[in-house]
Design brief:
homodimer; 169 residues; alpha/beta; Nucleotidyltransferase, domain 5; five-stranded mixed β-sheet; 5 strands; RNaseH_sf (chains A, B); metal-binding (chains A, B); cytoplasm (chains A, B)
Amino acid sequence: MGIDPGLTRLGLGVVEGSVGRPLTMLDVDVLRTPADLDPARRLRILADGIEERLLLHRPDAVAVERVFSQHNVRTVMGTAQVSGVAMMLAARHGIEVHLHTPSEVKAAVTGSGRADKAQVTQMVTRLLRLTEAPRPADAADALAIAICHLWRGGAQNRLAEAVAKAAGR
Amino acid sequence: MGIDPGLTRLGLGVVEGSVGRPLTMLDVDVLRTPADLDPARRLRILADGIEERLLLHRPDAVAVERVFSQHNVRTVMGTAQVSGVAMMLAARHGIEVHLHTPSEVKAAVTGSGRADKAQVTQMVTRLLRLTEAPRPADAADALAIAICHLWRGGAQNRLAEAVAKAAGR
């Protein structure tokens, strides 16, 4: 399950697959909260939506986009709060959590860490063999994060296993 | 309940009282998580500790120190994640959440928004008539946030009520 965190719009995508095999989209959704609601209630609404989908899909892993404080400070704080809630909920349900930077996600799905939103959406649509592009961009981003984790996370795990085996552990 | 959020140390203080009456400390604690644990598990440990105390004390309100991204970016992101978790949990338990800036908290307990940690600890110790200063500083800060909310939040509520009454609502 990939999560593109945000207080106003939170993208959530569930993808099944592994390196070298076709990917399948199991779910995609965007959770929204009204900007005039107090932040704690907005976080609660998002928490309930995330938890519902964690219980429904029981994903092997949750991948969350890593938040940087490069942009608007107010937005970033809200985004960090949401990502903390998502990470905590996954941990409570015994699901492993991984963070990927935006450029890791872009590079994984398009081959370039500097791809724009349109390129990411286009590649996600092609990789998941969808008839229509996922809308809005947060939905496509969440799917891209899930795909990035399936490919990168998988490769990292196999490498770690090989190293552990070689070390006789 | 006042919360001074942090991944490594989270201060938590429960104070009873109102404007113009003596304050009573009901609880003070510092939750800690090991720095080498992955962030999602650290958030989960803190969430469990916060929730335990929310259920134990059933506070009227939870006051959380507002996070700014002025300092170390990495630390701030972790702190924002923790504050998001605390806010969401309070909302889930139907408890109102308020944020106060560090300078509001300092001004409320010491009279100066630029007071240092020692002055805050000293005033908290005096206001709560404690025989020993709360340690570490995160514990004193959490109590200061709780006191700030009792005084500021209370005053704001009474003002809002008076305005509503005057408007015939």
